[in-house]
């Protein structure tokens, strides 16, 4: 897409920053202590925006481009610099990639198989293993081995489709942590924090015919580039632990931006 294309393109969505809303999970004292232990404290950012038009999933590319070209967004959307300073992204996007993330799991029973398959003992203790090293991670237990190593004995207890689920991705991010991470011996803190974040991020409705819960939010993993094809968001360096998830609530016309930058510094 050229600069002239951007100028010709009609903007549909306008955005407002909801600066009065805060993520209660990230404010929780116990969660703060865990994030400190996992090397992630101060590297998360949760922001909320409203938008002014009906959103449907097929409009995702226009929606995201409008978002990253919106003057309100460009002065309020926060990113973390390598030096540990939070500030506005400071770029206008010319190209945006919005990857749909499946989000249909409504029960934490999704993780029962960790115990059923022997990765976690009764009571929640995680089964340890000999240390292995993969990318930036030390693998010293069967849960992280299942997450990271395709040739592990337990990799297939979650299918490729299940691994794409937003709930699994949240769990994975917390289990892997930051560059300097003290890992848990028990699965409980990972599951409890995953559950709390998930419940706060996604919206649900009860289906009137089946009485079952149905998630109404749409989730996208987002990257953005400027006119010089520089990837400025969420970072100029890709990493499995650097991410920006956009969770869109089409009923409230709200979008939640959940951002994390992988690194070794702990910031307040």
Structure description:
This protein is of the alpha+beta class and 268 residues long. The chain is 28% helix and 25% strand. Strands 1, 2, 5, 10, 11, 12 and 13 form a seven-stranded antiparallel sheet that branches. A hairpin with a 6-residue loop joins strand 8 and strand 9. Helix 9 packs across helix 10 (188-201). The longest helix has 14 residues, at 188-201. The chain is globular and about 60 Å long.
Main attributes?
alpha+beta, seven-stranded antiparallel β-sheet, two-stranded antiparallel sheet, 10 helices, globular, disordered N terminus
Overall mean pLDDT: 93
Which residue ranges are poorly predicted, with pLDDT under 50 across at least 5 consecutive positions? 1-6
Q: What's the alpha carbon Rg, rounded to whole Å?
A: 19 Å
Q: Tell me the number of strands.
A: 13
Q: What is the first-to-last residue Cα distance?
A: 39 Å
Output the number of helix runs.
10
Question: What is the global morphology?
Answer: globular
Task: Give the helix level as a range of percent.
Answer: 25-40%
Structural class: alpha+beta
Helix-strand pattern:
HEHHEHHEEEHEEHHHHEEEEEE
Please describe the biggest sheet, giving its number of strands, its sense, and whether it closes into a barrel.
Answer: 7 strands, antiparallel
What does the secondary structure layout of this molecule look like, with pairings?
Blueprint: H1 3-8, E1 15-17, H2 24-27, H3 29-37, E2 44-51, H4 60-68, H5 71-76, E3 78-80, E4 86-88, E5 95-101, H6 113-116, E6 128-134, E7 137-141, H7 142-148, H8 160-163, H9 166-176, H10 188-201, E8 204-206, E9 213-215, E10 218-225, E11 231-233, E12 243-249, E13 254-260
Antiparallel strand pairs: 1-2, 2-13, 3-4, 5-10, 6-7, 8-9, 10-11, 10-12, 12-13
Helix pairs in contact: 9-10
